[in-house]
TrEMBL record:
PANTHER family: (7AS)-7A-METHYL-1,5-DIOXO-2,3,5,6,7,7A-HEXAHYDRO-1H-INDENE-CARBOXYL-COA HYDROLASE, ENOYL-COA HYDRATASE-RELATED. It comes from the Bacteria. Belongs to the enoyl-CoA hydratase/isomerase family. This is Enoyl-CoA hydratase family protein. NCBIfam families: PRK07938.1. It holds the Pfam family ECH_1. The keyword Lipid metabolism applies. Gene3D superfamilies: 2-enoyl-CoA Hydratase, Chain A, domain 1. The lineage of its organism: Bacteria, Bacillati, Actinomycetota, Actinomycetes, Kitasatosporales. Keywords: Lipid metabolism, Lyase. The keyword Ubl conjugation does not apply.
């Protein structure tokens, strides 16, 4: 359980997240993920990182129960941890391929929205249930996956969008049966990793430099409203119903 790493092939580094039962990461988990991705990017032998997860779904966001138990301290920790993990994926010196199965919610959208490429299983679903969880955030990253009006509709309704729909929008590279997900992600990583390592790093820096969206500033701006919701009491009121029948 936790975050583990492996290097199945030369030039490819796999970072795997495993926090049963649903990969809702605690504060420490987000920072561990950030550390693993940053370490991979710093390794001169690595040319592509594959971000994967064990279990039913790729990521269910933050651990709401930790926030309910520990209050504002956990909320601040989760926000800083998410920001660190998202920034690590975006700023990784080499391309990051996200391999997504099952649910990809909240912080999961933040991760894949900052990845360079996405391969998803046929059962993958992406969404931001933030309004149902007493928080805000990651619209910055959802906007990198879908057009603006669809992003707003998904955000307000907390509905999800399928991997096939994202493929139609061009944000998911391939959609494959779940059993073929790892192989498909490694196939793409392999195609990237055969390129010159130094040139790949220059390409990643160049593409980040011309990105029309400042993902760091956008996400931090959104987080300010999460704090406002918490301080006003509305966040706690909504979270109090989390997991209860009929909510």
């Amino acid at each position: 359980m936790g975050v583990c790493t492996s290097s199945p092939e030369k030039g490819i580094y796999v970072v795997t997240v495993d926090f049963p039962p649903v990969n809702a990461l605690p504060v420490a988990g987000w920072f561990a993920l950030a550390d693993a991705v940053r370490a991979a990017g710093r390794d001169p032998e690595v040319r592509c990182v594959v971000l994967t997860a064990e279990g039913r779904g790729f990521n269910a966001g933050v651990d709401i129960k930790e926030i309910q138990t520990d209050g504002h301290g956990a909320l601040i920790g989760a926000n800083h941890g998410c920001a660190a993990a998202f920034a690590a994926v975006y700023g990784c010196e080499v391309p990051v391929v996200a391999a997504v199965q099952g649910f990809c919610l909240g912080g999961g959208v933040g991760l894949v929205g900052n990845a360079d490429a996405i391969v998803a299983s046929e059962d993958a679903a992406f969404g931001l249930p933030e309004l149902d969880r007493g928080a805000l955030g990651a619209a910055t990253h959802l906007a990198r996956l879908v057009p603006q009006h669809l992003m707003r509709t998904l955000y307000y309704t907390a509905r999800t969008v399928t991997a096939a729909e994202l493929h139609a929008h061009g944000s998911v590279w391939r959609v494959v049966p779940r059993g073929e997900l790892r192989a498909a992600a490694l196939e793409l990583a392999r195609e990237i990793a055969v390129k010159d390592g130094r040139l790949l790093r220059l390409a990643k820096a160049a593409l980040n430099g011309i990105d029309p969206v400042d993902v760091h500033r956008g996400y931090r701006f959104e987080q300010g409203f999460t704090f406002e919701a918490a301080l006003s009491g509305v966040g706690e009121r909504v979270r109090a119903g989390f997991g209860k029948e009929g909510t």
